[in-house]
Structures are given as C-alpha cells and as structure tokens.
C-alpha cells in the first residue's frame, strides 16, 4: 500500500510539473507570435517610420568595426534562444541594449556543451559549423552544420579578444570554447586561450545539479534516463517536433538538432520509430545538454577545462533558500517563479540514493541543498570539482578591484534561476544593478595590461 501511495504521488508530481512547463512554454511562444503580429499590423496600418536596424534590435555600433572596444557576447542557457528566435522576445530581457557592442548568438537550446561551443565559434568567426570528424562519428550525426556567410566578429583573435557573459549552461559553454581555443581545436585557425578577455557567469552550471536527477537522469551514471520521468516526455516531444519539421515553428524556435537529420524528409517514418525507441538520435547518443548537467557529467567536463591566467572571471550565484532551525527551506515563496517552486522545495530535501556510490569523494548532501530551483548554489560559484579552481568570495564589487586574472570572483545573490532573464520586471532594480555592474566591469576593469616603459608607473 505504501509503495502504491508513493508511486501515485510521483505520477501526480510528474503531471503537475509537465503541465506547468508546457503552459509556460506555450505562454512564451504565443507571446512571441502575438508580438510579431502586433508589429506587422502596426507597420501595415500606421506605416511606421522606424528604421529596420532599430526595429529588429540590431546593434547601433557595428560589431565588425575595428575599434578598441571588444564585443560582449551574451550566451543563453538551456531552453534559451538568441537574437532572431521567438520574434522580438529577448532571452536577456533587453540587457543587450545597455551597450553598443553586444552580440546574442542563437545556439542549440538542448544540444550538448561541446556542440554549442563549436557553434559559438563559427557564429563569431564565420563559415560552416564543423563539429569535428571524431565526435560526429561517435555520436552519429553530420560533421557539418549551419553556415554563417559572414561572422559576427570575423576579426576575433588574440589582439581582438571578447568578453563572454553566460547564463546557466551558457557559462560552461564559454569555458568549453576557451579550452578548445587553447587546444587549437578548430582546423585552419591558430587559436589560443587569450582570445577570451573575460568570462562572467550568471547562475552558471559549473558543477552540475541535483535537479537533473529529479527530472529523470539516473544518479548511477548521470547518462541514462529513468523509464518514466519529465525528461522522457521532453525527449518524445523534441523528437516529434523535429520530425514534423514545420518551417514556421522552426523559425520561431529550434532545439538545435538539425545536424541529426531527424526531419521526416530525411529520416522517414522508420527514422522516427528508431528515435522514439532510443536506437538513434541525440538522446540515444547522450549528445545533449542534460548528461552535461549531472554532477558526473560536469566532473567529466571539468577534468578537461582550465582556468587561464590571462582571463578575468566573475560569477553570480543565485539562491532562493534559507536555513531555518537547521533545515533548508525556500525563502520568499512569492518571489519564486511557479516554474521553479516545486523544484526549489525538492532540491532542499535531496538525498543521494544510499545504494548508489556518491558522484565524488567527499560528497555531502547538505552542501547541495541551497538552490535557485534549477541549480545548486554550491555549483554556481566557481569550478569546484574534481579540482577546485582559484576563487574569492566578494560582497561588494569594490572588494575585487583591481581585478586579478585567473581568479574566480563570485557573489551570492538572492533570486531564482530565471530572475535575470526573459522578464525584466520580475527583477526590478536588481536587473539594472547586475547588468550595469557586468558591463562596467567589462569596459573599465577587465583589460590586458599594456607593458610600460621603465620610467612609467604601472
């Protein structure tokens, strides 16, 4: 009887979680369509004189101009989108308008950290995305993807470095890209880690999250999924969405798996069946974002990623929990987005299965209880596992000035995982304080030191 009750509660939780996520996704999608229709009707009946560059949100200062200011690249997280997707909606809630040289690339919203890093490179430099022959064969997808006729910052090199700001998984994407640059992993390009001037993380997924297991990843290996879970429903939905391949839908939103050729035009009905049965596709290969967000997956990634001595690093970790009489509980319940509330509560009570080996030596559940509904706060501060990288906790920005490269400066901010994206009004004045400090740091405090003459004071 007890087991039956537990199973019933789990099914109810799965139904509620699925419904909340589906409704929120529909809300975002319909808002984008409604915004585009409103703009089109306004142009039709009122003959708007607003220039295309302003109406489309293009940069007023060309990202390709050869001036002294490096661009700031905003990299979205899981389920995110860049400029050009979802109509006029902005993933970063309009933060890109705070500076004249900001780029917002559109990367795969569910593709792996590796694939997204490759896509980001070619978005900036131009050319056809090359996922690498070895990786492509191992995962069973095309080696080449989208072609950028002209890069958004083609002069990018060591003399023209870039500031990166990543939200959620986007922070780990920038680290992976920098490591690829250091390893000279892009054929035909003489790259180095010094192509990256600074990395700023907003709720960055550095060390994985226990939410991945709550959503359906197996804690035994961090790669496979449970038979019945939220992620299985997501898997089926993504496969069907990509298979039906309706252009207008893909124009508004794309999960990023085009290089897997899952469209009915290429895969046919048996290709659909094969993907649904788990015999092929990104989910069968494990080449998607969730395995990278487990603690085990992050350990595998972090074992290959370095913190470089000539790059500036800053991190904002978020949390919506507090300690009460020895228990970790949600804080400011009304301030937690409905999409995240259940998970905040569940992550507060997470216990690693006792019959499963811990993800790493020294793991303790209580260190992972503080969270923002998507990631654990301990995971967001800086790369910690398997080897802790140099870091420094700060309360005020003035405490880390002058900035020293090669150190992860981090702050802990009260807020849930999506407080600083999509909906600007939710964050209120905090939104401007966070992004203003990020852009000011990029423009005034993060720069390569210029050698001085002996009679000059550094």
What is the 3D shape? Answer: globular
N- and C-termini, Cα separation: 74 Å
Give the ordered list of helices and strands: HHEEHEHEEHEHHHHHHHEEEHHEEHH
Strand segment tally = 11
- Our count of helices gives 16
Helix amount, in percent?
25-40%
Mean pLDDT: 90
* Gyration radius from CA atoms, angstroms: 22 Å
Low-confidence stretches: 50-66, 450-458
Relative strand content: 5-15%
Notes on the protein architecture:
The protein is 38% helix and 12% strand. Residues 50-66 and 450-458 have low confidence and may be disordered. The strands form three sheets. It has a seven-stranded parallel sheet with strand order 2-1-5-6-7-11-10, sandwiched between helices. Strands 3-4 form a two-stranded antiparallel ribbon. It is globular and about 70 Å long. The chain contains 16 helices and eleven strands. The chain is of the alpha/beta class and 458 residues long.
């Amino acid at each position: 009887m007890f087991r039956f009750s537990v199973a019933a509660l789990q099914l109810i939780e799965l139904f509620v979680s699925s419904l909340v996520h589906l409704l929120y996704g529909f809300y975002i999608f319909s808002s984008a369509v409604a915004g585009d229709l409103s703009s089109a009707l306004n142009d039709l009946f009122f003959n708007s004189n607003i220039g295309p560059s302003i109406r489309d949100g293009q940069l007023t200062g060309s990202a390709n101009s050869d001036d002294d200011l490096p661009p700031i690249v905003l990299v979205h997280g899981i389920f995110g989108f860049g400029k050009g997707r979802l109509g006029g909606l902005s993933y970063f809630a309009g933060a890109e308008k705070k500076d004249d040289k900001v780029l917002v690339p559109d990367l795969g919203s569910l593709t792996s950290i590796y694939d997204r890093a490759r896509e980001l490179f070619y978005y900036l430099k131009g050319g056809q995305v090359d996922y690498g022959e070895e990786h492509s064969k191992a995962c069973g997808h095309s080696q080449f993807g989208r072609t950028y006729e002209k890069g958004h910052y083609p002069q990018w090199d060591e003399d023209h470095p870039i500031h990166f700001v990543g939200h959620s998984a986007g922070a780990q994407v920038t680290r992976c890209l920098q490591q690829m640059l250091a390893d000279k992993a892009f054929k035909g390009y003489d790259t180095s880690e010094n192509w990256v001037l600074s990395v700023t993380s907003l709720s960055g997924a550095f060390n994985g999250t226990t939410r991945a297991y709550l959503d359906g990843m197996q804690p035994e290996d961090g790669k496979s999924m449970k038979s019945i879970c939220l992620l299985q429903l997501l898997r089926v939905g993504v496969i069907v969405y990509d298979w039906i391949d309706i252009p207008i839908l893909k124009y508004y939103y794309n999960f990023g798996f085009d290089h897997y050729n899952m469209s009915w035009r290429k895969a046919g009905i048996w290709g659909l069946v094969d993907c649904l049965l788990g015999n092929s596709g990104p989910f069968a290969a494990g080449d998607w974002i969730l395995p990278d967000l487990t603690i085990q997956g992050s350990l595998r990634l972090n074992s290959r990623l370095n913190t470089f001595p000539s790059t500036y690093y800053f991190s904002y970790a978020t949390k919506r929990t507090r300690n009460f009489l020895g228990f970790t509980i949600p804080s400011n319940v009304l301030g937690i987005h409905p999409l995240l509330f259940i998970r905040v509560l569940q992550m507060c009570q997470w216990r690693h299965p006792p019959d499963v080996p811990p993800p790493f030596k020294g793991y303790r559940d209580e260190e992972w209880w503080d969270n923002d509904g998507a990631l654990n706060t301990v995971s967001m501060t800086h790369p910690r596992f398997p080897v802790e990288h140099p870091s420094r906790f700060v309360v005020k920005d003035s405490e880390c000035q002058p900035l020293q490269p090669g150190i992860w400066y981090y702050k802990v901010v009260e807020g849930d995982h999506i407080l600083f994206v999509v909906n600007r009004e939710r964050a209120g004045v905090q939104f401007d304080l966070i992004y203003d400090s990020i852009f000011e740091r990029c423009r005034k405090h993060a720069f390569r030191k210029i050698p001085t003459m002996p009679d000059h004071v550094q």
